[in-house]
Amino acid sequence: MEEKNVKQDSFKAWLLAARPKTLTGAAVPVIIGLALAWTDAREYGDDVFSYFAAALCLLFALTMQVDANFVNDFFDYAKGNDDAETRLGPLRACTQGWVKIDSMKRAIASTTILACVIGLPLVYYGGLEMLLVGALCVLFCFLYTTHLSYIGMGDVLVLVFFGIVPVSITYYVQLHTVTWQVFWASIACGLVIDGLLIVNNYRDRDNDKRDGKKTLVVKIGAKATEWLYLTLGIVAVLIGGVFWWSGHVLAFVLPFIYLVLHTFTWLKMRRIKEGRALNECLGETARNMLVYGLCVAIGLLAI
Predict the structure, then answer these.
(1) How far, in Å, CA of 303 to CA of 284, rounded?
(2) Would you kindly state where each structural domain of the chain is located, as residue ranges?
(3) Nearest to 175 by CA among 132, 131, 125
(4) CATH topology of domain 11-301
(5) CA gap 53, 246 in Å, rounded
(6) Mean pLDDT across 235-251
(7) Which pTM was predicted?
(8) Three-state helix/strand/coil letters over 169-205
(9) What local confidence, expressed as pLDDT, does residue 297 receive?
(10) Lowest model confidence (mean pLDDT) among 21-30, 67-76, 140-149, 212-221
(11) Average pLDDT of 86-106?
């Protein structure tokens, strides 16, 4: 998307601030959770699966992702970590002046409230425990940017809030239980999505080290990070063996398409090494994540 001549607080400014490419990471876990739930719901009858609850889960995840993006944009600007001259990643709305600071504060409040409103009806489907889940999602949405990303906890949060929580809770809302297959699927999903954070932090490793941001990449170094990125994809696909074990062979086989794409992105990542050119790998990783989610879902839904 062209980022020149962006009018302040315009639709284009807010679209850039929302970072639509990141929505893949929010959608994929819900897609996998819903595919697992729909597959198992067939054993209980057609009326068990709720499409309205499914839509709420997806909308909540997408809204929380936009909220997280706004929070990240604002607090990184407030902390002085978004330097327009040295930034290697996609430009940020507050730093560039595309969005007024007060406008961003109101947007954060609005998206947080909207996510809560969307998620509240899930109490009817999943019980009062959904209130706790929602509260934790909102809490860690803020804690990630303001504190936890500075002490190397980002990758753990991705595994939990882009893997275990969304896949398991999406399934739980439909069937009021979580099976061992769902749990392992959630781990695999979290590993796949963590690849996006790995690439992002790999690109920013020098700036993060300068700013005192002790990401996992800063701690283990560039070479180990490159191999970690590849390993995440391999392990995620191999964990998919649980699908084969439960009779969904395609859900195990099709993700190898993702692994091929993931490997090519890894090779590009190792070739580029540093700089803004790594944003190509970031975009490809987001694409690969979507491919993974669709491959698993199609494999599960195939009759």
Answers:
(1) 30
(2) 11-301
(3) 125
(4) Farnesyl Diphosphate Synthase (1.10.600)
(5) 25
(6) 94
(7) 0.92
(8) HHHHHHHCCCCHHHHHHHHHHHHHHHHHHHHHHHHCH
(9) 97
(10) 140-149
(11) 85
